[in-house]
Design a protein that fits this description.
alpha+beta, Glutaredoxin, two-stranded antiparallel ribbon, 5 helices, 30% helix, 13% strand, elongated
Length: 141
């Protein structure tokens, strides 16, 4: 079984759904509660690079802290934004999942299906009632 790591916030529905999809593939991932155990600056830089996304896409733009720090201001450099994420891990968008296939910011949660090696082992419905994997094992789009 290939290893999977999820940078997880249990208070986030998308993160919970992503974790459930990983487990629905029969995988028990390494769970990094990144608010309690945040990645180092080097680890965060590596995760962002592996995702292949601009820094701003990994920056969580919802919430009071984003507004309070005025992070929508385009004058902030990538390095400065990363420093803010290291200092305030709540600013890291989630969940980020690492598999042998890829590293991805899994928003929406079903993006994790594209990077899991193991197939889903049964139907799956998100917390909000949206069917992701139907009773015949087909992915709903």
């Amino acid at each position: 079984m290939s290893p999977v790591t999820i940078y997880h916030n249990p208070k986030c529905g998308t993160s919970r759904n992503t974790l459930a999809l990983i487990r629905n593939a029969g995988v028990e991932p390494t769970i990094v509660h990144y608010l309690e155990t945040p990645p180092t600056r080097d680890e965060l830089v590596a995760l962002i690079a592996a995702c292949g996304l601009p820094v701003r896409e990994v920056l969580r733009s919802k919430g009071e802290l984003f507004d309070e720090l005025r992070l929508a201001d385009a004058t902030w450099t990538d390095a400065q934004l990363i420093d803010f994420m290291v200092q305030h891990p709540i600013l890291i968008n989630r969940p980020i999942v690492v598999t042998e296939r890829a590293t991805r910011l899994c928003r929406p949660s079903e993006q994790v299906l594209d990077i899991l090696v193991q197939p889903q082992q049964g139907p799956f419905t998100k917390e909000d009632g949206e069917v992701v994997i139907d009773a015949q094992g087909r992915r709903r789009t």
